[in-house]
Amino acid sequence: MKVFVLTGAGVSAESGLGTFRDKGGLWDEFDPMELATPEAFERDPARVHAFYNMRRSAMVDALPNAAHAALVRLEAGLEAKGGEIFLCTQNIDNLHEKAGSRHVHHMHGELLVARCGWCRRREVCTVGLSEETICEGCLRTGGMRPDVVWFGEMPIGLDTIADALRDADLFVAIGTSGAVYPAAGYVAEARALGIPTVELNLEPSDVARVFDSGRYGPATEVIPAFVE
Ligand SMILES: CC(C)NC(=O)[C@H](Cc1c[nH]c2ccccc12)NC(=O)[C@H](CCCC/N=C(/NCCC(=O)O)S[C@H]1O[C@H](COP(=O)(O)OP(=O)(O)OC[C@H]2O[C@@H](n3cnc4c(N)ncnc43)[C@H](O)[C@@H]2O)[C@@H](O)[C@H]1O)NC(=O)OCc1ccccc1
């Protein structure tokens, strides 16, 4: 049994990391076009660094919750029966890995990684970034940026995701609003491939009608019940 699991900010909400579009979510307070685009970074790098430094310091102390732990059990359970999980997350936090998940694909990158815009070197980053941050590779400043996918930028590993989707026996979406593409389009692709689809979310998402079924409630309750 091969299970494709797509997760979004809702799976980390009960770990204290805010979501984007919910009441009091990040995009309530901040404008994504002023902070999560390459143009915004070009225009005002200090402002973009401040935004991601704030989120990074919250992430460093955050702990995984029962939903993350249940997905680790699902991974182990499937592998014990010769199956596998493809855990595709839109999240830039590392709570899946902190919980013990071993096969995590970050399609929108990772905030605890920095990338140099000059030499493209990547390095682990648990502290704040600024325009003065020196790249340990090319020793230049002004090029370090969070290794995340901004709007208008190509998500990571689209071919790997397409292969995993094609091989899946079940598609599960967890804690995502279905508002951002290409991720929001995967349920329709799964359906077109004849793969059963289920949504596990606090409430029906923007693409709820495309799913065969849905279970609604907090992830820390719904995911352990689904995995048992
Ligand atoms: C706004 C939207 C319309 N715009 C887009 O989709 C754009 C443009 C676009 C592309 N194709 C289109 C087609 C149609 C229309 C527009 C487009 N897409 C892009 O720009 C993408 C890149 C988008 C990535 C942007 N980066 C993010 N994040 C990283 C940075 C950062 O984090 O700062 S997006 C960010 O928002 C997305 C949605 O967020 P969610 O995770 O779903 O969170 P949200 O708050 O929205 O919802 C939370 C959900 O959880 C639930 N919940 C809350 N609490 C709980 C709880 N306790 N338990 C359970 N559930 C819970 C809630 O009910 C809710 O449903 C995630 O992907 C997340 O990563 N790039 C691209 O298209 O490149 C070219 C391309 C691509 C492919 C092929 C050829 C060319």
TrEMBL record:
<dbReference type="InterPro" id="IPR026591">
    <property type="entry name" value="Sirtuin_cat_small_dom_sf"/>
</dbReference>
<keyword id="KW-0378">Hydrolase</keyword>
<dbReference type="GO" id="GO:0036054">
    <property type="term" value="F:protein-malonyllysine demalonylase activity"/>
</dbReference>
<feature type="binding site">
    <location>
        <begin position="90"/>
        <end position="93"/>
    </location>
    <ligand>
        <name>NAD(+)</name>
    </ligand>
</feature>
<dbReference type="GO" id="GO:0017136">
    <property type="term" value="F:histone deacetylase activity, NAD-dependent"/>
</dbReference>
<keyword id="KW-0479">Metal-binding</keyword>
<feature type="binding site">
    <location>
        <position position="52"/>
    </location>
    <ligand>
        <name>substrate</name>
    </ligand>
</feature>
<comment type="similarity">
    <text>Belongs to the sirtuin family. Class III subfamily.</text>
</comment>
<dbReference type="InterPro" id="IPR027546">
    <property type="entry name" value="Sirtuin_class_III"/>
</dbReference>
<protein>
    <recommendedName>
        <fullName>NAD-dependent protein deacylase</fullName>
        <ecNumber>2.3.1.286</ecNumber>
    </recommendedName>
</protein>
<dbReference type="GO" id="GO:0008270">
    <property type="term" value="F:zinc ion binding"/>
</dbReference>
<comment type="function">
    <text>NAD-dependent lysine deacetylase and desuccinylase that specifically removes acetyl and succinyl groups on target proteins. Modulates the activities of several proteins which are inactive in their acylated form.</text>
</comment>
<dbReference type="InterPro" id="IPR003000">
    <property type="entry name" value="Sirtuin"/>
</dbReference>
<feature type="binding site">
    <location>
        <position position="138"/>
    </location>
    <ligand>
        <name>Zn(2+)</name>
    </ligand>
</feature>
<dbReference type="InterPro" id="IPR050134">
    <property type="entry name" value="NAD-dep_sirtuin_deacylases"/>
</dbReference>
<feature type="binding site">
    <location>
        <begin position="201"/>
        <end position="203"/>
    </location>
    <ligand>
        <name>NAD(+)</name>
    </ligand>
</feature>
<dbReference type="GO" id="GO:0070403">
    <property type="term" value="F:NAD+ binding"/>
</dbReference>
<feature type="domain" description="Deacetylase sirtuin-type">
    <location>
        <begin position="1"/>
        <end position="228"/>
    </location>
</feature>
<keyword id="KW-0862">Zinc</keyword>
<dbReference type="Pfam" id="PF02146">
    <property type="entry name" value="SIR2"/>
</dbReference>
<feature type="binding site">
    <location>
        <position position="219"/>
    </location>
    <ligand>
        <name>NAD(+)</name>
    </ligand>
</feature>
<feature type="binding site">
    <location>
        <position position="116"/>
    </location>
    <ligand>
        <name>Zn(2+)</name>
    </ligand>
</feature>
<feature type="binding site">
    <location>
        <position position="119"/>
    </location>
    <ligand>
        <name>Zn(2+)</name>
    </ligand>
</feature>
<dbReference type="InterPro" id="IPR026590">
    <property type="entry name" value="Ssirtuin_cat_dom"/>
</dbReference>
<dbReference type="GO" id="GO:0005737">
    <property type="term" value="C:cytoplasm"/>
</dbReference>
<feature type="binding site">
    <location>
        <begin position="175"/>
        <end position="177"/>
    </location>
    <ligand>
        <name>NAD(+)</name>
    </ligand>
</feature>
<feature type="binding site">
    <location>
        <position position="55"/>
    </location>
    <ligand>
        <name>substrate</name>
    </ligand>
</feature>
<keyword id="KW-0963">Cytoplasm</keyword>
<keyword id="KW-0520">NAD</keyword>
<keyword id="KW-0808">Transferase</keyword>
<feature type="active site" description="Proton acceptor">
    <location>
        <position position="108"/>
    </location>
</feature>
<dbReference type="InterPro" id="IPR029035">
    <property type="entry name" value="DHS-like_NAD/FAD-binding_dom"/>
</dbReference>
<feature type="binding site">
    <location>
        <position position="135"/>
    </location>
    <ligand>
        <name>Zn(2+)</name>
    </ligand>
</feature>
<feature type="binding site">
    <location>
        <begin position="8"/>
        <end position="27"/>
    </location>
    <ligand>
        <name>NAD(+)</name>
    </ligand>
</feature>
<dbReference type="GO" id="GO:0036055">
    <property type="term" value="F:protein-succinyllysine desuccinylase activity"/>
</dbReference>
